[in-house]
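Justification of computing resources. Each target in the renewal requires a structure prediction run like the one illustrated here; the chain below, 97 residues long, is used simply to show the kind of job we budget for.
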Amino acid sequence: VQDLARLIEFIAQDDERAGIYNGVAPGCVDQRTFAGALGRALRRPALLPAPALVLRLILGERSTLLLTGQQVQPKAALAAGFAFEHPAIDEALAEIW
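Resulting structure tokens:
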């Protein structure tokens, strides 16, 4: 959350930085990695993954987003010189909790 607020401020400080930015950290993680990191941050067991078949039956085509994920990168932010304070998921979640 801190990095996102800093990114917005960074973009707003210079008119030459106008454009489209992805407000995401550079380290892409899958759902399993995220659940594990969240469990460590909360000092609780990680969430059990939902079976793919159940998600496909309930969500249909929309299940693809949950099952395969998205590989979003902050290319414009990094190219503009923005430096993330919490580039890894464990660091970011530790900052929140």
